[in-house]
Specification:
The mean pLDDT is about 80. The protein has one domain. The protein is mainly alpha-helical and about 80 residues long. Helices cover about 70% and strands about 0% of the residues. The structure holds zinc ion. Zinc ion binds next to helix 1 and helix 3.
Length: about 80
């Protein structure tokens, strides 16, 4: 059995698949393990989740890719990383 490991780039790319339940159970486990260990990715995930929820309620037609880019920019703020 291969051990799957996610780096930051892989995690950020797989956020949608993770949220949609499209990852295998091994992938989901590796993904969650990375989020638990990486404040940066956790921050992105939480920001994105919160924004998506707000967006879903107010603006169904916004472009998700543009939104993602904004969130990634927001999360480059050192305050957000907490270290
Ligand atoms: Zn990370």
């Amino acid at each position: 059995m291969t051990t799957i490991s996610y780096d930051c780039q892989a995690v950020l790319k797989s956020l949608d698949a993770y949220r949609n339940g499209e990852l295998t159970s091994a992938e989901t486990e590796a993904f969650a393990a990375h989020l638990a260990a990486c404040r940066h990715c956790l921050c992105v995930e939480q920001h994105e989740q919160a924004l998506l929820e707000r967006l879903r309620a107010t603006c169904r037609d916004c472009c998700p890719e543009a939104l993602r880019q904004r969130i990634l920019t927001l999360c480059d703020d050192p305050k957000c990383r907490g270290d």
